[in-house]
Amino acid sequence: MTRSTIESAEQLIPIDIKSFRSTTRDITFDVYLKISATNIAHVFSRATGLDYKRLAQYIQKGVEHLYIHPDDQDIYRLFISRPAQEIFQDPQTLPEKKIATLINMTEQNMSELFTQLNINDETAENTEKLIKNYVNIMINNPETLTVILKLASHGDYLYYHSVAVSIMSMFIAKASGQFNQRMLELVGLGGFLHDIGCTQLPKEVVCSSTELTLDQWREIHSHPKLGMKMTEGTQYIPDEVRYIIYQHHEQPSSRGYPNHLHGPVIYYPAKIVALADCFSALISKRPFRPAYSVPEALSIIKNSEGKFDRDLAKVLAVIFEPKRKY
């Protein structure tokens, strides 16, 4: 029996679809989806690798098994025997491979987050572990994060923005000198999840290239509350992270949303994520405008009276444009 003569699922070996949850994307075997007894789709190949978005969609639709060719059983067992986390933490792994593996882990995690109405414990735990990896890199090899940001920038905007805000928030928090490692993890997790509520909004609203209507703005303003609700009920997302998600659009001037909180009342880590959120958005190309340069973005933030914490804005400026005086 050859791969070209596969006619039914009975000729293939079923495998648990969730066995791919902690793997890298570079498979060396072919994967099939059983549509019916006589209809089999070739969904992932050794040439293209895993597609995390499609994998997450299959899981959400209730698919429990994928299939492999009998000749590939040993290759499959070897592949899943070494999860991505183990590869990343192995001191023998080359730096380039570690970066690629961490990006794989991030893409897979984001794909699952973006397909869930409520974040389950398994996904939340994996997200927490992922952010701990980023914090460890920040402490031990921070220049690696800039490489990750450049590589992630080629992906979907909401995915890239989530990664960028998480990393930038941790940079700001660390540079402020006010946070221990655990708080860096909470800030990083809050930055990573800050816009998760946007996944529940119509794509044409989130990615609009034209001026939003009043009703569409109301929808956009609902995403902090939606995000907070999505993260309720899991032990792996602490209340501190939910505060960040809920308050990351509040402003010291009280002109923010959803509750028009004023300066001292706003949770301090939420102020950090708010700043990172705006800075990341400004230096990113959007459908309705080109990206601003770093100096332009810093100038916009500096002149946004009452929108951001002044001291944190100075910290941001020192991080990204250290030669200028403020």
What would you note in describing this structure?
The chain is mainly α and 326 residues long. The protein is built from 15 helices and four strands. The strands form two sheets. It has a two-stranded antiparallel ribbon with strand order 1-4. Strands 2-3 form a two-stranded antiparallel sheet. A hairpin with a 2-residue loop joins strand 2 and strand 3. Helix 7 packs across helix 13, helix 8 packs across helix 12 and helix 12 packs across helix 13. The longest helix is centred in the middle third of the chain and has 20 residues. It is globular and about 65 Å long.
Characteristic key phrases:
326 residues; mainly alpha; two-stranded antiparallel sheet; 15 helices; 6% strand; disordered N terminus
Secondary structure layout plus pairing:
Elements: E1 13-16, E2 31-36, E3 39-44, H1 52-60, E4 65-68, H2 73-80, H3 84-89, H4 95-113, H5 121-140, H6 143-152, H7 157-176, H8 181-193, H9 203-206, H10 214-220, H11 223-230, H12 239-247, H13 268-282, H14 294-302, H15 310-320
Antiparallel strand pairs: 1-4, 2-3
Helix pairs in contact: 1-4, 4-5, 5-7, 5-8, 7-8, 7-13, 7-15, 8-12, 11-12, 12-13, 13-14, 14-15
Could you say which overall geometry the principal axes of the C-alpha atoms support? globular
Order of helices and strands: EEEHEHHHHHHHHHHHHHH
Tell me the fraction of residues in β-strands, as a range.
5-15%
Largest sheet, if any?
A: 2 strands, antiparallel
β-strand number: 4
Q: Which percent bin holds the helix content?
A: 40-55%
Given as residue ranges, the uncertain stretches (5+ residues, pLDDT < 50) are: 1-5
Mean pLDDT: 91
Number of helices: 15
Distance between the termini: 71 Å
- Computed Rg: 22 Å
Could you give the order of strands across the largest sheet?
1-4
Give the class from helix and strand content and strand pairing: mainly alpha
